[in-house]
Amino acid sequence: MLPAIVLIAEGLVVLWFLLFLTMITSIYLDGRDYGPSKASTVERSFLKHVRIFVSLGIPAGCLVALADAFQFI
After folding, report:
1. Judging by beta carbons within 10 Å of its beta carbon (0-12, 13-18, 19+), is residue 58 exposed, middle or buried?
2. Virtual CA dihedral for 73, 57, 19, 26, nearest 10 degrees?
3. pTM for the structure as a whole
4. Does 72 have pLDDT greater than 90?
5. How many structural domains comprise the chain?
């Protein structure tokens, strides 16, 4: 029973994260009309690598959650 509860909770976390990403994307798309801005080096570096962070972070989190739910770790 407990693994099922954990998996449901993890699914809700993934849903929340996807909604959060949708909100951030919406804010980004709204802000594109404001014209160019001066981004710092840290901001430019983060924005160049955010796709990698997300595409590696979500599957890694899912794998760790599944491994923990089924007591592989």
Report:
1. middle
2. 170
3. 0.44
4. no
5. 1
Q: Is the pLDDT of residue 14 over 80?
A: yes
CA–CA distances in Å: residue 4 to residues 1, 16, 34, 65: 5, 18, 46, 12
Mind listing the pLDDT tens digit for each residue in 15-46?
A: 999 999 999 999 988 888 787 778 788 888 88
* Within-domain flag for 2: yes
Instruction: Tell me whether residue 31 is in a domain.
Output: no
- Structure-token pair, residue 4: 């099922």
Q: Which domain holds residue 44?
A: 1-21+40-73
Alpha-carbon Rg for the chain, nearest whole angstrom, is 17
Helix (H) or strand (E) holding 24: helix 2-31
